[in-house]
Amino acid sequence: MANLQKPILSILLLVSATLTVVIITLLTVDETPVSRLYTLDNLNFTHSGEHGLNLTFLKLENKNKFSFRYIENPSHKCHGTAFLLIMTVSAPANVQARTVIRESRGKIKRISEREIGQIFVMGMPDNNNDLGRLRSESTSYKDILLIDFTDGYRMLTLKSMIMFEWFTEYCQNVQYMVKTDDDILIILQNLISFLKSAPSTGFASGFLRQNGKAWRNTKVKNRASITQWPYPMYPPYLAGLAIVLSRDVVIRIHDISMYVKMYHIEDVHIGILFALLGITPQHSTRFEIEEIKACDKLCCRGDMIAIHFGRAEKLQQHLKDIKFVNKTNCV
Ligand SMILES: *[C@@H]1O[C@H](CO)[C@@H](O)[C@H](O)[C@H]1NC(C)=O
Ligand SMILES: *[C@@H]1O[C@H](CO)[C@@H](O)[C@H](O)[C@H]1NC(C)=O
Ligand SMILES: *[C@@H]1O[C@H](CO)[C@@H](O)[C@H](O)[C@H]1NC(C)=O
């Protein structure tokens, strides 16, 4: 008996020791394992990109943290084999805009075998009634990413950075991400055919602002002081209406964003991160900021992917009649 007990005991001890090591390892695994691409030491802020900007003044010594709680988390949208995730920036009050989107492109789950996930992203409303309503909207549609900070225009840059963090954490199998707003018309069929022939890595596209000016005029909403931005021009950036990114670009942006001061103009901030990463954003004529350049009354160019309408009612009117996307069909 005693002879048998010894080896059994030592086997038990060995097994429990191994288990403990495994459990400890599991517990200490970093929450975002991919985010170790950059450290402060391997980042070069001087002469970033072909425009030779010295961006040292934007360098942070202490890492940014974007660790906000997600009050509602639609991570199921990234399970399986989604090809594309569309993240639509919304605001708690824009219920009507979300309804219109859910009744149009929101219904589409796949196009030519490509699975598409779609979610809305927002911060918290400033009162409890609205929060209750928003949470029941989320329960009904399960398509709202609700971040634990008070929503507002000044939060746009932070909101985007949190979107990249969320994507990095939950959507590692999704090939592309599109970030857009709830007043933009997205023609999904055209977007998917565009992505089918797009590079699978290093890809960033949309409406490119080349030589975008830093506005000093105090009356302009997106003004910048000399201290905020010392150069007359910004690095090339994609206008915020809709930007298309391959997964690796999202992950790299998220990773570097932890070391860079947040610029108050959201689309410029992403352009700054492109410059630091050496990523060249590509212009596409299929994205348009000024509706009149792509549409004639209710008819828009047939190859368009994203059109900015500005006014929700106008977008709704267009969405009612699918024929508008094809000029030849509806003149
Ligand atoms: C940073 O990049 C610039 C050119 O883009 C180069 O001249 C400089 O040597 C680099 N600095 C370091 C520390 O790598
Ligand atoms: C870049 O700017 C910083 C100050 O923000 C300065 O200390 C540094 O010398 C500059 N580097 C180059 C290469 O001009
Ligand atoms: C627009 O019309 C062209 C030619 O008839 C067709 O190939 C294309 O699929 C149409 N686009 C949409 C979004 O319906």
Briefly summarize what is shown:
With 331 residues, the chain is of the alpha/beta class. The chain has 10 helices and 16 strands.
State the main characteristics.
Spore Coat Polysaccharide Biosynthesis Protein SpsA, Chain A, 9-stranded mixed beta sheet, about 35% helix, binds 2-acetamido-2-deoxy-beta-D-glucopyranose
Task: Give an account of the 3D structure.
Helix 6 crosses helix 7. The protein is globular and about 50 Å long. The chain has helices spanning 2-28, 95-103, 128-141, 156-170, 188-196, 247-257, 266-277, 291-294, 312-320, 327-330; strands at residues 70-72, 84-89, 110-111, 114-124, 144-150, 176-181, 184-186, 204-206, 208-209, 237-238, 242-246, 282-283, 287-288, 295-296, 299-300, 306-308. The N and C termini lie far apart (95 Å). By secondary structure, the chain is α/β, with parallel strands linked by helices. The protein has one domain: Spore Coat Polysaccharide Biosynthesis Protein SpsA, Chain A, CATH 3.90.550. The chain has ten helices and 16 strands. The longest helix has 27 residues, at 2-28. The strands form four sheets. Strands 1, 2, 3, 4, 5, 6, 8, 11 and 12 form a nine-stranded mixed beta sheet that branches. One 2-acetamido-2-deoxy-beta-D-glucopyranose binds next to helix 5. One 2-acetamido-2-deoxy-beta-D-glucopyranose binds at residues 187, 189-190, 302, 325-326.
